[in-house]
Write a structure and sequence with these properties.
Helices cover 37% and strands 26% of the residues. It has 11 helices and 12 strands. Helix 4 crosses helix 5 and helix 5 runs parallel beside helix 6.
């Protein structure tokens, strides 16, 4: 259940840069958003847009060069004491994109899932630990006998379920799901999405869901932020974004969503986004709310046009 009064994660003026001097590359800049408790907030953009970089910064894997990340009101980027860092690791878990690369091939499934329990001493005794592991493995649709096998003995979909079990056994507050279904067959994707939704309903989980496919996030998201070249261009509730896309890049992404009907697909016109279409030489752009809950990046004249477009669609 989404609680709009309770902000779980807040990102303020975030910048993430790599390298020094002439080699310095700014991967993410001026990123601002809040995630409410119980919601699924999706970051959508093409490869290299910075969405995974933000997700990795939230769990502490990427350092930040400017701005703040707050979790439950406490700043979690920058220097933290070992106890504060342990709290972040315990309460913010990540499901990685590649289920093959993110699991230790030399460890059994039972050990992979138990590792967090060992590290944080989250069990009373050996019997309690095994019960927790068996319960979570069954919850993700695998069998207790799978616990004593190794990751290479499983399919991609099964490995991703093991990754989900490893994250959720920690009872986290927030899960960063980094393209958790992009490496999977289409037939398995719906199962994994349904699994994530099921856990959210049962455990009141909050997700930061990273993806490049708008059609996937429509099913699972409460709100969507569209990101390109390290900058968020549009943010709105899911149905609002699909019904009233304002930024030309969002429109281009939506036009690329496949249509299952071949006749309709033939008539579809693809929109190509050209960043040169914006003139920001004098009138500088800002990320601004044009309608309650609907934010767009643009300059003053563009915002005026976006408001007109919204008024025209609402008549």
């Amino acid at each position: 259940m989404v609680n709009k009064n309770e902000v779980l994660l807040s990102i303020k003026d975030l910048e993430i840069a790599f390298g020094e001097g002439k080699n310095r590359f700014v991967a993410v800049q001026d990123v601002n958003f809040d995630i409410y408790k119980g919601e699924t907030f999706s970051l959508v953009g093409e490869s290299g847009s910075g969405k995974t970089t933000i997700g990795r910064a939230v769990v502490g894997l990427n350092p930040t060069s400017k701005g703040d990340i707050y979790f439950e009101g406490k700043k979690i980027n920058g220097r933290l004491s070992s106890k504060e860092r342990a709290d972040v690791i315990r309460n913010i878990q990540m499901i990685f994109q590649d289920p093959s690369a993110s699991l230790n091939e030399r460890a059994t499934v039972e050990y992979i899932i138990s590792e967090g329990l060992y590290n944080f001493n989250l069990f009373k005794d050996e019997k309690d630990r095994l019960q927790k592991v068996e319960k979570i493995i069954e919850a993700v649709g695998l069998l207790p006998e799978h616990l004593y096998r190794y990751p290479h003995e499983f399919s991609g979909g099964q490995r991703q379920r093991i990754g989900i079990a490893r994250a959720l056994i920690m009872s986290p507050e927030l899960v960063v799901a980094d393209e958790p279904i992009s490496a999977l067959d289409v037939s398995i994707r719906a199962q994994v999405l349904n699994l994530l939704k099921k856990f959210q309903n049962e455990q009141d989980l909050t997700y930061l869901f990273v993806a490049h496919d708008l059609s996937v996030v429509r099913f699972i998201s409460d709100r969507i932020a569209v990101i390109r070249a390290g900058r968020i261009l549009e943010l709105a509730e899911t149905e609002e974004l699909f019904k009233n896309p304002l930024h030309p890049y969002t429109k281009a992404l939506l036009s690329a969503v496949p249509i299952p009907d071949p006749k309709l697909a033939k008539r579809k016109i693809l929109t190509v986004y050209d960043p040169e279409m914006h003139d920001y030489s004098v009138d500088k752009p800002v990320f601004q709310e044009v309608k309650p809950g609907h934010f767009v990046y643009g300059n003053e004249s563009e915002h005026a046009q976006y408001v007109k477009d919204l008024q025209a669609t609402e008549k």
